[in-house]
């Protein structure tokens, strides 16, 4: 039995690898996407263009505005002379924010009264505006701390000290890149398996398989194993690049990582074979794969929290294997998790994999005859 299955697996690998374009598709696009997502998919802001309006022109106001010029977060692109210049700059998107210091800023500080600083921010992109506003708030808080320390003033009665666990520098790249391991593995695995049976039908070689000694279950297993092996190799390559190139820590158990990967691939391969069994041509298989992958990525919590979705949509996400694998990836990469911490995410993927493989097997037999 296994000799026959391995012969079919060898045939599938030869069909994939004999074409130079297919070899490139298996390696180059995932690496390109990893680099693109690794550098582009981030909530961190660098070189935020700002303008300043100093109506006080005191040593204190200059000290505050100088704090915005330190580091790489902000870039001062304009110094304004009046409030009338603010609106044109923001309207034309020349600046993301304008820092306005009032005419009594130093007097208020020296007398112990609150010294307001106005921030005018472009809110057309609300996420970017909120991140930039957080940077402005942090800069003002550092100025306040330095002002009190340099003048021996008493600290406020309550002071917030923040410590971020698992991601001490709050790098959004550390959040995104582990998720990219799951997303790209799903893409490649689905494309490989969703086209395998459809390719046989389109090329007219499916009937030749039927007259071989292979049983339907053996044919299905032979079609599934190449996608499974390619998924393992693909995820390993992406994980190594994420660790070596982007510096994302891998703190957890390799065994837990590969156990989650194996169950995730089982469900992905099952879904791909299910689509391939329904498809008469490779074009139909390709469309079916994308019809599955796009909702799977959106509903997985890759970019937006599942808790923010409507309750009805949250129920649908329980059928998405990528939802569980992303949790496994982020726990293993950042939290140092082992089997004990990811076990509650492993069994749902095993159930989804068993269901999809069973449906693919039944449909495969049904479509054969």
Commentary on this structure:
The chain is an alpha/beta fold and 369 residues long. The chain folds into two domains: 2-41 and 172-368, no CATH class; 48-151, abc type-2 transporter like domain (abc type-2 transporter like fold, 3-Layer(aba) Sandwich). The protein contains 15 helices and four strands. It has helices spanning 2-17, 20-40, 59-69, 86-91, 105-111, 126-151, 172-194, 196-203, 206-210, 216-244, 254-278, 282-298, 311-317, 321-335, 339-368; strands spanning 48-54, 74-79, 97-101, 117-121. The chain has a four-stranded mixed sheet. Helix 3 (59-69) links the parallel strand 1 and strand 2. The chain is elongated, with a radius of gyration of 28 Å.
Structural class: alpha/beta
Strand order of the largest sheet: 2-1-3-4
Largest sheet: 4 strands, mixed
Radius of gyration in whole Å, from Cα? Answer: 28 Å
Q: What's the overall average pLDDT, rounded?
A: 81
> How many independent structural domains?
2
Give the uncertain stretches in residue-range form.
Answer: none
The end-to-end span amounts to: 22 Å
């Amino acid at each position: 039995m296994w000799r026959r299955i391995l012969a079919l697996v060898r045939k599938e690998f030869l069909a994939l690898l004999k074409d130079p374009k297919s070899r490139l598709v298996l390696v180059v696009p995932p690496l390109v996407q990893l680099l693109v997502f690794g550098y582009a998919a981030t909530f961190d802001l660098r070189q935020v263009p700002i303008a300043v309006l100093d109506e006080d022109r005191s040593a204190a106001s200059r000290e505050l505005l100088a704090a915005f010029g330190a580091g790489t977060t902000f870039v001062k692109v304009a110094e304004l002379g009046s409030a009338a210049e603010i609106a044109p700059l923001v309207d034309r998107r020349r600046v993301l924010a304008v820092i306005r210091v009032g005419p009594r800023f130093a007097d208020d500080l020296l007398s112990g009264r609150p010294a307001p600083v106005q921030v005018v921010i472009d809110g057309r992109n609300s996420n970017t505006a909120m991140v930039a506003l957080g940077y402005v708030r942090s800069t003002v808080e550092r100025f306040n701390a330095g002002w009190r320390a340099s003048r021996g003033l008493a600290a406020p009665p309550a002071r917030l000290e923040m410590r971020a666990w698992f991601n001490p520098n709050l790098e959004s790249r550390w959040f995104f890149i582990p998720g990219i391991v799951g997303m790209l593995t799903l893409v490649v695995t689905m494309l490989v398996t969703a086209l395998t049976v459809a390719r046989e039908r389109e090329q007219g070689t499916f009937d030749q398989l039927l007259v071989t000694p292979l049983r339907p279950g053996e044919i299905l297993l032979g079609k599934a194993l190449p996608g499974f092996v390619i998924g393992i190799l693909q995820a390993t390559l992406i994980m190594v690049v994420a660790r070596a190139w982007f510096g994302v820590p891998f703190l957890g158990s390799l065994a837990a990582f590969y156990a989650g990967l194996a169950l995730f691939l089982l469900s992905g391969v099952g879904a791909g074979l299910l689509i391939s069994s329904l498809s008469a041509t490779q074009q139909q298989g390709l469309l079916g794969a994308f019809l599955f992958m796009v909702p799977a990525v959106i509903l997985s919590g890759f970019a937006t929290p599942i808790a923010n979705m409507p309750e009805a949509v949250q129920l649908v996400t329980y059928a998405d294997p990528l939802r569980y694998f992303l949790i496994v990836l982020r726990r293993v990469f950042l939290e140092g998790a082992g089997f004990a911490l990811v076990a509650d995410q492993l069994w749902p993927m095993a159930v989804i994999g068993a269901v999809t493989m069973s449906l693919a097997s039944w449909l495969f037999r049904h479509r054969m005859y």
